[in-house]
Amino acid sequence: MTDTVTGTPPMQISARRAIDLAIEYNFILIFLVVVAIAALLSPSFLTVTNIANLFQQAAVVGVVAVGMTFVILTGNIDLSVGSVTALSGMLAAVMMAAGMPVAPAILITILAGAAAGATIGVITALAEVPSFIVSLAGLVSFRGVTYLLTDGVPVSGLPPSFGAIASTMVPVFPGVAVSSMGLIFVALCILAGALLRLTVFGESVYATGGNAEAARLSGLPTTRILVLVFTVSGIMSALAGILLTSRLRIGQPTAAQGLELDAIAAVVLGGTSLFGGRGGVLGTFFAVMLLQVLRNIFNLLGLGSFYQMTVTGFIIVAAILLNRFIDIRRGR
User: Fold this and answer.
1) Which of 29, 33, 95, 262 has a CA between 20 and 30 Å from the CA of residue 154?
2) Which residues pair with 228 in a beta bridge?
3) What's this model's pTM, rounded to 2 decimal places?
4) Beta-carbon count within 10 A of 4 CB
C-alpha cells in the first residue's frame, strides 16, 4: 500500500520521519550516548552526589546559555554576557557589603543586567550595527566597570542568607537532594521554553530570526523584538552573576572570563542555528549538561584540561556541521 499523494509506501515515510526526528533532536541522542559511556568508564558517575554536583556546576553557564538562545534565535550574538555576569555579581556584593538587604540588592542587580542587555540591543537594532561589534565593545566596557567598582579587589563579608541561595540542598525524591542552584537552572529553562513556544513573543522571535525583512513587512516590531531578546540575555546574565557570587560567597571581579564562549558553544551544540529561526531551550539544556558531563568524566578519570578542550572542540565542530546539514535539508 502506498501514500495516495506521493506514491511512497507508509513504512518508507515512517522511516524518513524517524530519521528526520533523529537528526533534528541529535543533541538528545548524543547526550544519552555520552552518559552511557560515562557510566561505563566510571562507577562513580551515576551516584546521587555526582548527579547533584553536575546540575550545580552547570547552572551558571546554563542560565547564561538560556539567555543566549533568545539572541541567537534572531540571528545575532551577545559577547558581553561574561562581563555582565561578573559585573552583576560584583554589584550585588558591593551593595550587600555596604549593608543593603539581600532582596533589594538582587532586584537592583537584575535591573542593571536588563539595562546592560537593552543597551546592546538598542544600539544593534536602531543604529543597525552588527551585534558582534556592539557586544564585543560591551564585553570590554562592562568588564572595565567591574574592576572600577572596587579597583579590582574582591568583596567579601556577604550575608549568610545570600550564600544560601545557591548552596541549599533541596530534597526532590526520597534520599535524593539537588542544590537550589541546579533547581533554579531547571526552572529557568522551563520558563524560557514556555515563553518561546507558547507566547506571541516567542513566535515573533522565531519569525525575526527566520527572515527579519519578511517579519517586518508582515507587521512584526522587529526592532522591539531585538531589544527584548538582548534584555532577556542581560537578565539571565545578571541572575548567573548572582548565583555565582552566592556560591563563591565573595564578589570576584575576574569571575566568568570566557563564559560567553561556553554559552555560545552550548547553544550551537544544542541545535540552535547561528543563522537564526531554528532551535530552542530544550537543546540548550541538554547541550549544557552534555558539556558538563564531559568535564565531569574527564575529572573522574583524572585526565587534564587539555583533553577536555580537545574533545569539546571536536564535538562543537561536529555539531556545527550537523546543524548546517539540517539547514541545507530545509533549503536555508
Assistant:
1) 262
2) none
3) 0.90
4) 6
